[in-house]
Write the structure tokens for this entry.
Amino acid sequence: MVPIWIAAVFLALVTYYVGQDIPRKEAVSVAAMADVSATNFLAYRQAVRNYITANPGATGTIDDASLVPHWLPGYIRRAEWTNLITGGTLYIYSTTVLSPGTVGSISQKTAESILVGTKNPTTGRLQTATGNDTGINLPAAIAGGALVMMGL
């Protein structure tokens, strides 16, 4: 009888671990990766802003070689970030579609700014992290579904 009881307790613990603990750890890991990605994105944006402050007439895409002096010490740029200055407006955006967690994390870090979101592939307009259409048309150079942050 005791071995059956021990086996039942062991089975219950394994079931709990597999059913509860592993998914929770995976969710924490995904949230942490989204937070790191968001922080990296915002650091990239800050470097572009610093470049624009030093070069107020800048337009087009600012290349990495020009941004290096403005990066924070130890900053490692992720390949999917890029920028565009057109019509006096700065756009920092991703060249790939990112997880909703990254978009949500950036939105939280910017106090739910309506200038942060994704490009709606159908309308071509900025859509907030909560899915609201801002009515702001984005440049064609930005791919549908890309993470976008506007403004200085």
Remarks:
- The radius of gyration is 21 Å.
- The chain has a mean pLDDT of 88.
- The helical segments are 2-54, 64-67, 100-109.
- The chain has one domain: 33-150.
